[in-house]
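Researcher: Structure prediction, please.
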Amino acid sequence: EVHLVESGGGLVQPGGSLRLSCAATGFTFSSYAMSWLRQAPGKGLEWVSAINSSGGNTSYADSVKGRFTISRDNAKNTLYLQMNSLKPEDTAVYYCNALQYWGQGTQVTVSS
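Model: Predicted structure follows.
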């Protein structure tokens, strides 16, 4: 059974940093591309970033480009999202995604 478990969210001041993690089990993690998406209060799901199976290719939404970095450790079956220079508009529940599978999400709140 596939499980994706996000962690690392929390409350941070504008300009601060957080590192999200997504622990994957139940499938061959190293064979699949992974993505981060987010959903802000009252808004739809927004794609944030993606990484290919080896980690050699990444892509970002314009809204986070230059501030967020996606990475993965295939030996640990874990996906990461390093978020720097956080803004209030980054407040959302962040989800990791592989194929049709989703985690439960982790809340990120950026507020002073």
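Model: The chain is about 0% helix and 50% strand.
Researcher: Thanks, that helps.
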